[in-house]
Write a structure and sequence with these properties.
This is histidine kinase. Helix content is 61%, strand content 14%. The chain is α+β, with helices and mostly antiparallel strands and 315 residues long. Among the domains are: 67 residues; 145 residues, Heat Shock Protein 90. Strand 4 and strand 5 form a beta hairpin. Helix 4 packs antiparallel against helix 5 and helix 8 runs antiparallel to helix 10.
Length: 315
């Protein structure tokens, strides 16, 4: 502690020693009695010793406070302008640190809730597959549909974790939205057949984007169109140089739910009513499209259908 004290106040002691040397030089040059200098030096040294003890006690108290303090209120004795600046800086750092800890806690809690929700969603297709296996009634089309659901839930979770960790692997190239849609329709053909849905595709949209992530975003929209369509319904995909529009003749979305569709974890009336939503699909879609510099807009009417438009963001 003494070494730290001397290090902090070394400049002042060096200044005192320099001034003492100058006074001694003055006495020597003017042939003044050295006794007067020694008397003055004794008084000054005694005063310096007393002041040093007082400064050291204050320095030790501050050092112990800094080593053990838990709240900024404990730094109330730091009254010098420079000390107040340090105190304000410590307060700002602690506030920022507390906010980061709170954010991390919320993120951890959100991840736990997500895992619970995801596990619950996975149980449904797994239970269906288990029941078919136990009863020896393995319907090929139904098995494919349940496996497709499992694949979608897993894909959504993995992409969510990747985005949450700010780990992305975008690779921009010229893409054909028609090719992507055709691949997705082939992927979801079992779901189309299960609900006897017809699909109509018009035009194409050539754009520079990341094919994998654009495909993921479009798959979420197309999956919702299939999920909430009525048996025997229709899905239309229209593309031009402005963007891509996906329309369905499903149950539609309540007007009060529309502004919150892209919130994380929001399922809305349809999700609660049919217990098919995780609240991540459209949230992830919006996150991905934002990174791709694309926009998404949704219009819907209950019992009439939903229209989703994806295009380039306006500059």
């Amino acid at each position: 502690m003494i070494a730290k004290f001397l290090k902090e106040y070394s400049k002042w002691y060096l200044l005192y020693a320099s001034m003492t040397g100058l006074y001694l030089l003055t006495f020597f040059l003017y042939h003044l009695p050295i006794t007067f200098f020694l008397t003055s030096f004794s008084f000054n040294l005694t005063l310096l010793f007393g002041i040093s003890i007082w400064l050291f006690l204050g320095f030790r108290k501050k050092m112990k406070t800094l080593e053990t303090f838990l709240s900024v209120e404990e730094l109330a004795d730091f009254t010098l302008p420079s000390e107040e600046s340090y105190r304000d800086l410590i307060l700002a750092i602690k506030s920022s640190q507390s906010q980061r800890l709170l954010d991390a806690k919320h993120q951890h809690q959100g991840l736990q809730d997500l895992i619970k929700m995801w596990s619950h969603q996975m149980k449904v297709p797994l239970s269906a597959l288990s029941l078919m296996a136990q009863t020896d009634q393995l319907d090929k089309q139904e098995v494919r549909q349940q496996l497709l659901r499992l694949e979608k839930y897993l894909d959504t979770l993995l992409n969510y974790l990747k985005f949450s960790g700010n780990k992305d692997d975008f690779r921009f190239e010229i893409c054909s939205s028609r090719e992507i849609i055709m691949d997705l329709i082939k992927k979801y053909r079992v779901s189309f057949l299960a609900k006897n849905l017809s699909v109509n595709i018009e035009g194409d949209w050539q754009l520079k984007s990341d094919k994998k992530w654009l495909s993921f975003a479009l798959s979420q929209v197309l999956d919702n169109a299939i999920k909430y369509s009525k048996d025997g319904g229709q899905i239309a995909v229209k593309m031009d140089e402005k963007g891509i529009t996906i329309l369905d003749t499903g149950m539609g979305i309540l007007s009060e739910d529309l502004p919150r569709l892209f919130e994380e974890g929001f399922t809305g009336f349809n999700g609660h009513e049919h217990k098919k939503a995780t609240g991540l699909g459209l949230y992830m879609t919006k996150q991905v499209l934002d990174r791709l510099a694309l926009s998404i807009a949704i219009e819907s009417q209950v019992e009439i259908g939903t229209q989703v438009f994806i295009g380039k963001q306006k500059v």
